[in-house]
Amino acid sequence: MNSQKQIRLKRYTAEFNEKLGEFELPAEQEQFTAMPIEMLEVTEERHPIVILSDWEPVGFFVLHSSERVKEYSDNPKAMLLTALSINYAQQGKGYANKGMSLLRDFITQEFPNCNEVVLAVNHKNIPAQKLYEKVGFTDTYRRKIGRIGEQYIYSLTLG
């Protein structure tokens, strides 16, 4: 990754539509996530987030504060992270690691009532498990059956 590029997280706005629509993922990754363009609906309980390199979208994920979070945590102040992806053309440059490393500060600033982030990662998705662990998520040892098999529930405590 070019050290001159500034990596930041930003709430989704329509200005990012074109670039997010150009995202591509190989089939082995697409099975584990959703394409950004499918996940752009913004509501009070659904917050699409863009990972930017300078001002170019290179990654994407969604934070949820809906009832769905209860499937993953008993904590009423938790948020659920879903649909993390890095555009295939931008992979291997450290954007996922850097973006997820910014998560703690971003959530503290943007969602001050949140004190935990939870997510589900497929048991076969070893690269994602390693990424999440590297940036501070821990395996809760809770399990959930997803559309393509067993998922591990990970947690990141904030504050």
Describe this structure in words.
- This protein has helices spanning 17-21, 27-30, 95-101, 103-110, 126-134, and strands at 7-11, 46-53, 56-64, 78-86, 116-122, 138-146, 149-157.
- It has 159 residues and is of the alpha+beta class.
- It has a single domain, classed as 3-Layer(aba) Sandwich (Aminopeptidase).
- The protein has a seven-stranded mixed sheet, with helices on one face.
- β2 (46-53) and β3 form a beta hairpin.
- The protein is globular, with a radius of gyration of 15 Å.
- The mean pLDDT is 93.
- Its EC number is 2.3.-.-.
- One of its GO terms (molecular function) is acyltransferase activity.
- Residues 7-159 form the N-acetyltransferase domain.
- Keywords: Acyltransferase, Transferase.
- Pfam families: Acetyltransf_1.
Keywords:
159 residues, Aminopeptidase, 7-stranded mixed beta sheet, globular, Acyl_CoA_acyltransferase, GNAT_dom
Topology readout:
Blueprint: E1 7-11, H1 17-21, H2 27-30, E2 46-53, E3 56-64, E4 78-86, H3 95-101, H4 103-110, E5 116-122, H5 126-134, E6 138-146, E7 149-157
Parallel strand pairs: 4-5
Antiparallel strand pairs: 1-2, 2-3, 3-4, 5-7, 6-7
Concise synopsis of the structure shown:
The protein is α+β, with helices and mostly antiparallel strands and 159 residues long.
Largest sheet features: 7 strands, mixed
Q: Round the Cα radius of gyration to an integer and report it.
A: 15 Å
* CATH homologous superfamily placement: Gcn5-related N-acetyltransferase (GNAT)
N- to C-terminal distance: 29 Å
CATH architecture: 3-Layer(aba) Sandwich
Oligomer: single chain
